[in-house]
Amino acid sequence: MALPTWDHPEPLAVDSAPVPEYGAGSLADLLPTLAAGMAVPGMTAAIPELAPADRNCVFLIDGLGWEQLRAHPDEAPFLTSLLASSRGGTGRPITAGYPATTATSLASVGTGLPPGAHGLPGYTVRDPATGELMNQLRWNPWTDPRAWQPHPTIFQLADAAGVHTAQVSSPTFQNTPLTKIALSGGTFHGRLSGEDRVDLAAGQLAAGDRSLVYTYYAEVDGKGHRFGLDSDPWRGQLMYVDRLVQRLAEQLPPRSALYVTADHGMIDIPFDEQHRIDFDEDWELRAGVALLGGEGRARHVYAVPGAQADVLTCWREVLGEQFWIASRDEAIAAGWFGPHVDDRVYDRLGDVIAAARDDVLIIASEREPKESSMVGNHGSMTPAEQLVPLLQVRS
To answer: What pTM did the predictor assign?
Structure first.
């Protein structure tokens, strides 16, 4: 009897996805490594290439991936001059974590934990207690932040160990739930302008014999989403943040290390049906789906009870040549969310998880009109999205 033959290529294998470098070279490993170098109890130097310093500053530039930085030396001459310093002078990037999105990455930075442990595994995920989608960036609908993410931050642990600890960012972020559960500990200082932020960050570094300071800039990501990576607004923001980094580097007090990194990279997606697959207009993809979470390049798909296997089969058949399509348990076993997924996090993950390999999006034009109109996108495990710099300046 002849075996049946496929009339289309096999879907991408789940284990062929380039899993983030959890435990040795991911965003979740950065602050524990720095804190270990300042003798904070319980911390491990997970990124072995980084030499200890008494005063450490992390400047996180939202959306500035490794590949985007390398492709724009004219707009970022100072940052480009630091490329060889990345990851302790190896000239290599680190990885963001999956999904490569702001809420997930900032939680990984602040807690020192991968997404499967801190529990912010996507832009939007299902809250098992309510059955609703929760936006973890905007914290909508409301849920108790400490119940959602109960682990202490590295800033809190460092502050308790006598390290001078501070965050310098936009005042609008001071009291947000994401800041409280991911970046709190020590003192928050709100400043509107980039120049004021980097000047204050330098001052906070000098305020202690051991210091851990975090500062943040958002608009590289904002302009990328709205206008794309080759737009004048995006290039202008890159030029501006390049000057900010140089300004901060020139003010470092003695015994300091400045680390410049990002929460994710970005990729522009063309506006046509081939590159933007509309869930709201595709009956095959909608069949058996109760909720669509995540974002265009990193989807959590929640099936109606009993339909999980059918949804997985359908999504693999329709999208499996362009996306890594995994069941929840397959993605966990492959390590997409880290080496372990906590019990409280398990049901936040989709029954089916779709991570883009090609230059494509799963948009939802009716339920997500704003997100569906973005030029620049991110979320998946491709190098353009996953690889982020870890540039270094030491004094």
So the answer is: 0.96
